[in-house]
Amino acid sequence: MIFTDYLFYLFSSILVLASLRVITANNPVYSALSLVLAFFSAAGIWLLLHAEFLAIALVLVYVGAENCGYRWCLSVLDVYGFASIRSTRALTFASFYT
Predict the structure, then answer these.
(1) CB atoms within 10 A of CB 15
(2) Phi and psi dihedrals of 24, rounded to 5?
(3) Separation CA 15–CA 9 (nearest Å)
(4) What CA–CA distance (Å, rounded) separates 98 from 93?
(5) 3-state secondary structure labels for all residues of the chain
(6) Cβ–Cβ < 8 Å for 45, 68
(7) Domain 3-95 adopts which CATH fold?
């Protein structure tokens, strides 16, 4: 076996373990980080296939979109209880002028 075969097995095992961690993580932050790891390992497999543009596009587009979507979900779902912070009088006053 050549070195690229070992790299393929490494990237594919990381991809499988990270994708399992995405669906089994209790904390949504760990789930999102595992998804980023899965995207990077998939990009590594694309690099082994000499598809550099697809690897870069995967990282830039999907990791960026996942990060923005994750931030939006956190702000909408209010997972960490920031609603009590938003309801303070100072922030309400400041929100009228922004």
Answers:
(1) 19
(2) -110, -5
(3) 10
(4) 10
(5) CCHHHHHHHHHHHHHHHHHHHHHHCCCHHHHHHHHHHHHHHHHHHHHHCCCHHHHHHHHHHHHHHHHHHHHHHHHHHCCCCCHHHHCCHHHHHHHCCC
(6) no
(7) Four Helix Bundle (Hemerythrin (Met), subunit A) (1.20.120)
- Tens-digit pLDDT profile for residues 51-80: 989 899 988 888 888 778 877 777 777 666
Name residue, tokens 């939006």.
Answer: 72
3-54 confidence digits (pLDDT tens): 989 999 999 999 999 999 989 988 777 888 898 899 999 999 999 999 989 8
**Cα 44 from chain centroid (whole Å):** 16
Q: Which residues of 29-43 are buried (b: 16+ CB within 10 A; e: fewer)?
A: eeebbbbbbbbbbbb
Roughly what angle, to the nearest 10 degrees, separates helices 3-24 and 28-48?
Answer: 160
